[in-house]
Amino acid sequence: MAILEVEHINKTFGRTEVLKDIxxxxxxxxxxxxxxxxxxxxxxxxxxxxxLETPDKGVIRVNDELLFDAANPVTKQESEIRKKRLHFGLVxxxxxxxxxxxxxxxxxxxxxxLAKSQPDYKARKKEIHAExxxxxxxxxxxxxxSERMNNYPHQxxxxxxxxxxxARSLVNNPKVLLLDEPLGALDLQLRRAMQLELKRLQxxxxxxxxxxxxxxxxxxxxxxxxxxxxxxxxxxxxxPDEIYNHPKxxxxxxxxxxxxxxxxxxxxxxxxxxxxxLAGSIxxxxxxxxxxxxGTPVTLAVRSENMIFDETCxxxxxxxxxxxxxxxxxLRVVLKLADGTEVIANRHGIDAGxxxxxxxxxxxxxxxxxxxxxxxxxESGAAV
Length: 384
Description:
The protein is an alpha+beta fold. The protein folds into two domains: 4-245, 3-Layer(aba) Sandwich (Rossmann fold), CATH 3.40.50; 250-377, CATH 2.40.50.100. 25% of the residues lie in helices and 35% in strands. The chain is built from nine helices and 20 strands. The chain has helices at residues 42-49, 78-84, 103-115, 125-142, 158-170, 188-205, 216-222, 240-245, 250-255; strands at 4-13, 16-26, 31-36, 57-62, 65-69, 88-91, 176-180, 208-212, 225-230, 233-238, 259-270, 273-278, 281-286, 297-303, 308-310, 317-327, 330-337, 342-348, 359-363, 369-372. Mean pLDDT is 91; it is low at 378-384.
């Protein structure tokens, strides 16, 4: 059974439709990363899930319990919303710790405020406080902060503050933890270390994460599934392998990793291999069972690491070297094809023999060319 079900969520600010028909579900313990350009709707979706914003349309369920239905006024009452927020923890990039409280005090605060609404709070005040303190100490211990519990935020490093913020979000035992770029304020080395910490903690607790990040590598490493957002919709949702190796649209192909987008014309298909006329040559792509009539314009996505160039010009599409650069042990070469299209090819090592203006050929294997932007693949709407 899905722990979270989101159906047909829409949200509009003024005349701007920020979320359009968003649907998905998550199983217990899954990590879903939301990626996309700024303004694509990632943070608004998180705020709708935590009821900091009220969706205009749609349904939200947790453990098959109806939390919100835009068509049901009862679920929109503020008293109901406050209770239902407890199903979700929220972690911000900016930590939002209270400077006047210690790490332990920050973690305890939200639960103590909730406890005061209990009928027996006055009679059991000391006992309840001790229970909350023990739980908060246990969480901080799991975060590796057992010796920093009495430190104030200004006495903690950025990574330690983020761990306090995560512990605080977990103290009410949420079903789903929402993380809005939680590592964005940290330096690269610390961010990578915290990725491992978060992944370890998530597996240990078995809690469901919804994770916003601008770091594609982080999304791939952290996630069971990735949703690529574009203009308020899910352009594609799938496993990291599906998103990287089988993008459905040119937007997904170019947003996640480096992909060359090539325009050509379909020729014949034989044994599920589609021949494509492209830049004065014939190239091949796996059709994956798709029926494409000869003469149909098609778009291929080819990762830069799968674009192979040949200085001996023995086979492939004719090209001219435009520029070259070196990064991270890779030679990055920009090539111009016969039709003027520029493509990027990466090769391991440093090959100083390749020079701008040099004539080469380039090619790719059929299994590394993905058909994108097909009509059935570009329809926005529900994704599961």
